[in-house]
Structure formats: structure tokens, C-alpha cells
Amino acid sequence: MYILIMLVAAAVLADFILRKVLDIPRSKFWGKYEYESLALGRWDKYVTITFVLCLLLDMIFMFVEPYIVSFLFLVVNILLKSIDEWKYKQETKEYVTSFVQMGFFFTAFVLLASGIVQEKEIRRNYINPINS
Fold this sequence. Notes:
This protein is an all-alpha fold. Helices cover about 70% and strands about 0% of the residues. It has five helices and no strands. The protein has helices at about 1-20, 40-60, 65-90, 95-115, 120-125. Helix 2 (about 40-60) runs antiparallel to helix 3 and helix 3 (about 65-90) packs antiparallel against helix 4. It is flat, with a radius of gyration of 18 Å.
């Protein structure tokens, strides 16, 4: 778990340093990204709908852990945003920070999915109601 916290801290620090070095202004923290390409905007809607359906099916059938679906959604969503920025907004250099963020999220996904990082603290502190 501490590896993921350090990975998030490294992602925030890398984003801050890249924005200072490349002189990229801070973007809005929260809000909808406006795609320049209509095709990528449609893909974003498809990815969001697929994510919601997969999350609902996962809640019912429990075929994978929910964080795997969430990380995949984040990686694909940031990838679409990065491609749009790279193709249509190259002068802002915002795509560099998006690709770096995608790399950090993908690394976290691989660490979680491979089992290198596990939720041992939660499993250890879980009280089984059947045995109590």
C-alpha cells in the first residue's frame, strides 16, 4: 500500500516539475475535458458507458477486483485525452504531462493486478462475522 502512496506522490511531483520546466499553466482541477476531435469525444463516451457496465457486472458477478476496472478506465481515459492534446494542442505541451500521468497510473495498475501490492492491512484487520 505504501508503494501506491509513494507512486501517487511521485506522479504529483513529476507533474509539478514538468509544468515548471515546460512552462505549462495549471489546468482546471475538476471539470469535463473538451475534445477537439469529435471521434475521440465519442470514444470517451463509449469508454465511460463500458466502464459503468463493467463495474455493475463486476458488482454482481465479482469476476475481477473493482480497482482493476477503475484503473483500466483511468488509463484509457487519460490515453484518449493525451492523444487529443498531442494531435490538436501541441503548442501547449499539455500532452507531455498527460502521458506521464498515464504512465504512473499504468504502473500502479500493473503493480495491483500482478499482486505485488496487496491490501494486506485490510485483510488482516477484517473480522470474520462467522467465527465471532
